[in-house]
Amino acid sequence: MPLRRTLPRWVWLALAAALLLLAGLLPAAGADEQTVAGPRRMAAEYLQRRAGKPALLVGAGDIALCHDGQERYAEATAKLLETLPDALVFTAGDNAYQDGTREQFNDCYARSWGRQGIKQRTLPAPGNHDYGNRRTPHEAGAYFSYFGAAASNPGTEGKGYYSLDLGDWHIVTLNSDLELRLARDRSLDPAARAALAAAVAAQREWLRADLAAARGKTARCILGIWHHPRFTSARRGDNVETSALWEALSAAGADVVITGHEHIYENFSPRNGSGADAPDGVRQFVVGTGGAGGGSAWSTAFFHYGVLKLTLDAGGYAWEFLPVAGDGLRDAGSARCNRKPAA
Was domain 34-336 assigned CATH 3.60.21.10? Predict the structure, then answer.
């Protein structure tokens, strides 16, 4: 009897798929995940390479927009990242415009911040565009697939939040899209709203537990990264929906929060949850300057492109905004970390 009649049809299909993979005509499952480490492993390996030097963190939000010539701005900020090969890279959400599709990650983000030598050291955060402006169901599958293991800790896969340690620094990356959507999306049916409320509660509970564990390990400095700024002078105004995230970090004695969303650069002096200046408050940077211009800035005079560089030292930090060529914006300074409350 001929061989083709002795094997089940599914075996022939599997063999055909294997041949296509070998020929490079089909993407291998999990290919993205194989190119990057998880956040904690990435941080541990980075500290070994730094050999006792202060950790460097550099990045921005609101990055890859590839139409009408806008891609040149993300490519320009990517060149800034390449001048700092010894720094870890963060993103503050809205990585690929307009809807965070797989094609937009592959055809737009990959040209700039996804290039070899940058992606492998990137710690991402999700933004509303990564979830799609009008996508139904509201999900960010392409974001999680593209960044792979770097987008979560074990146990937070697909949730958009994770944490890691860099020497004296504890860093938490959070998913502010959950908070904003629960508060603002009036189209949710009861079942979807209940599921989203559960996801919001889970993130807040995880954050409190994570910060408590960090304080138990005597973390001297704490940094938070998410997309929607708690405070901003842009036209859309403050995002009070992120208050729970801010208050949890503030209660833990956190030092810095980095956000994006507004396509501008702002540096707010340390403040408490009500927005009042406080010597032991949290300093917030709005760094929506990764390449996708426009947004809700009051005028073109507020449009800037560049990245924020943080030097994370033992018990303190220094910051510097690095603009693209031809941009005159400058901001730099340093500060000591807050005294942390007892665990």
Answer: yes
**For residue 320, what is the DSSP state?**
E
pLDDT band (50, 70, 90) for residue 68? confident
Could you give the residue range(s) of every CATH 3.60.21.10 domain in the chain? 34-336
Q: What is the dihedral of CA 203, 267, 279, 276, to 10 degrees?
A: -80
Strands (E), 125-187: 162-166, 169-173
Residue 80: half-sphere exposure toward Cβ, Cα within 13 Å: 26
Tell me the mean pLDDT in the region 275-290.
96
Beta strands in 115-208 (DSSP E): 122-123, 162-166, 169-173
> 211: helix, coil or strand?
helix
Closest-CA residue to 247 (of 278, 288, 220, 291):
278
Give mean pLDDT, residues 194-209.
98
Asked if residue 6 has pLDDT above 60, the reply is no
The more confident residue out of 285 and 9 is 285
The alpha-helical segments, DSSP class H, found in 33-118 are: 39-50, 71-82, 102-107
Give the pLDDT band of residue 299 (cuts 50, 70, 90). Answer: low
Look up the pTM and report it.
0.89
Side chain identity, residue 115? R
